[in-house]
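> Could you send the EF-hand domain-containing protein prediction when you get a chance?

Sure thing. Input:
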Amino acid sequence: MGNFSTRPGPKNIAELEKLCNFSREEIQVLYDNFLKMSGGRSTVSRRDFIKGYNKTFSSGDARKFAENVFRTFDTDGNESLDFREFLVGLSCKSAEDLPSKIEWSFKVYDRNGDGYISRQEMKSVIHSIIRMNGIECNIQDTVNKLTQDLYQTVDLNNDKSVSFEEFKSSVEQNSTLLDLLQARPPH
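Output:
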């Protein structure tokens, strides 16, 4: 792959600004972070991404959650991220508009990409969120209770799978639900 230490040029930055909700300056800072994470290479491996992501959570273990995030960023499925995937992924993850937040959150929970969230997928992601945040609790009981409560809320037709439409409808009716699903404390 080789080293990739040259900064994106003005043409590339203008193109990237159109793709995401970051300013020119933010793109430069994110590019520097990308280079640190990749060791100066043109791509970041799954392992390096997880390691870098985990460093941002000093209170817990973010590795499992980082795997889910990586999966949503790796749009071509080649097990590595180029800067464009990295930037667009971060843009989706940090989006301010509700439709983008809902879509990204759904992709995090739909681990196998079949268009539905199973109870096991939700349980796995909730478990990774609790570990990431370093919450002191009986993890298994907490995961089971949260999974049961959240799944009951979003599985609107009680068919034991959550479609994107069910997920979207539930979140639109209760925005606090999105904060819980994205591992953020409610406002």
